[in-house]
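To illustrate the input format used throughout this study, we show a single complete record. The first block contains the structure-token representation of the backbone; no residue identities are included at this stage. The design step must infer an amino acid for every position from geometry alone.
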């Protein structure tokens, strides 16, 4: 039996009490987040954390077993709420530092790299192997964070900070590590569904609208199943639209599992990992998948990781 271990620092303070913590790391969301829940009082005395910590304080969370903890989250305190009898600390990774206003600008025929180089603050590098071209792109009364979020939603690129560099890559391009799970040994709960590719009929339709108002449409996949439609204003470049349609088809149409499963804090697993599943009863279903999201939780009931699978790789 393992004993839970944790170490959480906010600003210059190390927390001594904890109700729960939940960390969400995802390649589909712009930033990783953490929610730290503290008891609202101790020995019938209300805790007044606002006097010790403040928005923008650095946050580091370590979790593990038997004193062997691993850093699960690094970021900043985004907000403090005390509405339901407990104290909630909402935290965000280093993309929090990009919640800064950028000067208004209109780009003509820019690639995504041109926009990114404009919004990034001095001292932050860019590593980008993703190409997507707009006819026109307008920044008006927006923060760098808001621009990044819009670019991710429209292009479906993986965008994340690593040290002092912003990374922008096609989905599933980078694999950050490996984890192995067995239905017989270390999967506690499963919400997975196995399907063959022919049962996942998907048609992806990407519609771009140029400056002249003309709609350009590119499709991938086949009719007879689900239809996914993406609409992007200011884009008429067929190569960009076609590439987006093909990449989204790969995400949605494959033979294998979809859904999520829950294990423990061991093994370590993160979003962007290659997750290999083993099943001694159905060995033909064994395979490796891309983890798109990992939710790590700890409370008095124990520690767990819920892993959402992307396509088979």
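Output of the design step:
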């Amino acid at each position: 039996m393992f004993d839970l271990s944790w170490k959480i620092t906010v600003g210059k303070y190390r927390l001594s009490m904890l109700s729960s913590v939940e960390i969400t790391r995802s390649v589909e969301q712009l930033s990783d987040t953490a929610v730290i829940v503290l008891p609202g009082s101790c020995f019938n005395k209300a805790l007044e954390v606002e006097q010790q910590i403040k928005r923008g304080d650095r946050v580091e969370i370590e979790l593990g077993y038997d004193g062997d903890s691993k850093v699960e989250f690094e970021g900043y305190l985004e907000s403090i709420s005390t509405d339901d009898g407990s104290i909630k600390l909402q935290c965000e990774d280093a993309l929090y530092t990009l919640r800064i206003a950028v000067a208004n600008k209109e780009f003509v025929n820019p690639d995504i790299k041109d926009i990114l180089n404009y919004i990034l603050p001095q001292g932050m590098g860019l590593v980008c192997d993703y190409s997507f071209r707009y006819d026109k792109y307008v920044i008006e009364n927006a923060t760098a964070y808001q621009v990044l979020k819009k670019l991710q939603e429209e292009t479906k690129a993986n965008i994340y900070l690593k040290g002092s560099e912003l990374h922008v890559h096609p989905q599933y391009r980078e694999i950050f590590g490996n984890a192995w799970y067995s239905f017989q040994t270390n999967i506690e709960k499963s919400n997975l569904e196995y399907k063959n590719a022919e049962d996942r009929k998907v048609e992806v339709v990407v519609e771009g609208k140029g400056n002249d108002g003309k709609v350009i449409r590119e499709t991938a996949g086949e009719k007879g199943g689900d239809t996914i439609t993406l609409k992007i204003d200011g884009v008429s470049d067929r190569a960009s639209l076609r590439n987006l349609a093909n990449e989204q088809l790969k995400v949605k149409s494959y033979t294998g599992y979809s859904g999520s499963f829950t294990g423990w804090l061991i093994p370590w697993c993160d979003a962007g990992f290659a997750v290999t599943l083993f099943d001694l009863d159905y060995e033909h279903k064994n395979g490796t998948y891309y983890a798109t999201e990992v939710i790590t939780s700890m409370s008095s009931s124990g520690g767990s990781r819920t892993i959402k699978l992307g396509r088979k790789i």
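Structural context for interpreting the output: Helices lie at 112-119, 144-155, 238-252. Residues 238-252 form the longest helix (15 residues).
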